[in-house]
Every structure is written in C-alpha cells, then in structure tokens.
From TrEMBL:
Top-rank taxon: Bacteria
Name of this protein: Amidinotransferase
C-alpha cells in the first residue's frame, strides 16, 4: 500500500513551490499601495500631513441643554451622560465658521480632508475625531471611548475608514479604554500612551500589541488628577523638538525626551492653555489657536518654527482644540 495517494503527492508538491510569504510586513509601503491603494498610516507626529479625518460640528451638539447648569459652572446631565465645558452653551454657527476656517488652512497646506460619513445620534463631541482613531504604521487603530457621551463614535469612524479603504489593524475591545488624545509618536520607533480617566492599562496593552509587531516601543505614563489626555500637555513640532507643559508631565517622561534627543520649549504662564493642543503639518510648521505669548512665540521662532494661528475658542469650549479636531491617517516619514 502506498504511503500517500497520488493526489496527496501532487498537492504537497504544488503547495511547496507556492509558500506563504510573511515578509515584507503588512505595513510595507509598496504592498500597501499595491493592495490598499495608498501607503496608509503614520509613524510620526511631524512629517508632512497628507490625509486627515475630521467632522464639521453639526446638530448633534444641540443635545446640550443650558438649563442644566452644574455646580462647577459647566453644563451636563449625569443621567444622560453628556457635558459641556464652556461657560456658555454651544454656538453652532460660530463653531462651524471656525472649523471651516481650519479646514481651509489645511487644504491650503495641501492636506486632503476625509470627513466622517455622519455623526451618530447625540454624539455631540464627534468633531474631536482625534480620540476615535489612532494612525499607526499601515493603517489605523479604532479606539474604545471612555465616557458615555462618546461611546458609539467608533461606529461612524469604522464605517468611514472602510469606505475610503484604510486598513483597521485593531479595534479595542473588552474593558479597554483609550482615546487618541492619549497617544503621541515620539519617533518612528517610540510612542507614548497616557493612562488617565480616559485611558486604562488594558487600553495601553492592546495598543502595545499592535505596535510591538512593528518594532515600536510604547512608553506608558500616568497623568495627574483628572487630566484627560497628553495632547493638552505635549506637542511634537519636529523630530527633535516638542512644546511641553513641564508642570503637568511626569519627570521620567521629560527625561525620556532628553534620552531620545528631543529638545523642549516650555509653555509660559501667559499662554492660552489651548496653544499646546496644536497640529504639526510639517516639521517646524504648526497650527495653533490664538493666544500664544510673545515669550513662547519668540522661543519657537528661535528654533525655526513657523506658527499659523486661527481663532478656535468656540470649538475649544466643547473640550477640544485643533489637535483634537484632526486624526491623521497618512503622514510622510521623517
């Protein structure tokens, strides 16, 4: 009796000469262009920005009821889960004007804007697209939002990414909580994730799993008190330069920046707090809200940084600035 059939022999010989090919890796630029149409993803926060996900504020913000003032001065409904940080309710028309002006600046800089297909019902913070998607090598991670008012934004982001053909490398699941404002690239082999009320250990672990397969180290830090995201404290401006708030960042993280050769410019007490929530559109070219002090602008200028400013206070009143309002999907390498 034969040890194998003729068909088994033929099958084995065929598969032997057509093996699986693990390399190049999924995130290889040429393979991405061939099969996914573009070299999707980001491995830094400062390379020339090519494609970004945004959402123009819309009627979803009308969920805010200004008759529901909380004792600390904000508006909110604990039972329904929504809150609004501004001293006044949302000015939708004004938010749209400021957002439109931001979009124009980005388009003038050659950035392609991808808009969410739509906001989910009552998802009043959908214009802060940074939090729902993290751009990594080869595509995106869809996060899992923390508070009830943001849970569900993941659905519209997923549908939009699928429509444009952007690979989704991971959707956070289980008890993971993480938002994109808690993540930043330091260089193409190092990123940081801030644990806080908006990002837990499990969220960091799941993000780290994706990055580890790409040879990227994820530095994890803990924010103080009820600080939400690192993007209110830290902004990469160039491969070797960052804007920081040293009073609110852990000392070991500041030391890590030094080890990586990243010089820092520290914010000044006269600065509008939202300036650090800016967006680098190319190395040493950054968009910020109005309100940077001459002290800070002079120090950025001395480092060769070009600053584009825009009024954005009405959008910021909802809890997010220019950085929060954009989720990069493609950046050039640096």
């Amino acid at each position: 009796m034969s040890v194998m059939t003729e068909n088994e022999w033929r099958y084995n010989q065929l598969i032997k000469i057509f093996p699986s090919e693990a390399e190049p890796a999924f995130e290889d630029a040429d393979l991405l262009k061939r099969w996914w149409g573009r070299s999707w993803g980001c491995t830094n926060d400062v390379g020339r920005l090519r494609v970004v996900l945004m959402h123009r504020p819309g009627p979803e913000v009308n969920v805010v009821d200004t008759s529901k003032r909380l004792e600390m001065g904000a508006f909110g409904d604990i039972q329904q889960g929504w809150y609004w940080r501004g001293n006044q309710g949302p000015d939708l028309a004004g938010m749209q004007r400021q957002h439109d002006a931001y979009v124009k600046i980005l388009k003038d800089e050659g950035v392609e804007i991808v808009f969410l297909d739509q906001a989910g019902p009552g998802r009043m913070k959908s214009c802060y697209t940074r939090d729902v998607v993290i751009g990594v090598g080869g595509g995106a991670i869809v996060t899992r939002m923390g508070p009830r008012i943001r849970r569900g934004e993941e659905v519209q982001a997923t549908r939009t990414l699928a429509r444009i053909g952007c690979p989704i490398l991971r959707t956070l699941s289980g008890t993971a909580i993480a938002e994109g404002g808690s993540f930043a690239w330091l260089n193409d082999k190092t990123a940081v994730f801030s644990r806080s009320s908006r990002g837990n250990e499990e969220g960091g672990r799941q993000i780290e799993e994706v990055l580890r397969s790409q040879g990227v180290e994820l530095v994890q830090i803990d924010l103080t008190g009820y600080r939400l995201h690192i993007d209110g404290l830290f902004l990469m401006i160039a491969p070797d330069l960052a804007l920081v708030n040293p009073a609110q960042l852990p000392f070991p993280f500041l030391q890590k920046l030094k080890q990586l050769g990243i010089e820092t410019v520290e914010v000044h007490h006269e600065d509008n707090p939202w300036i650090i929530n800016g967006l680098a559109i190319a190395p040493r070219r950054v968009i910020m809200t109005e309100g940077a002090s001459n002290y800070t602008l002079d120090r950025l200028g001395a480092k060769g940084v070009e600053v584009l400013t825009l009024p954005y206070d009405l959008v910021c009143s909802g809890g997010g600035g220019p950085h929060c309002s954009t989720s990069p999907l493609i950046r050039d390498a640096v």
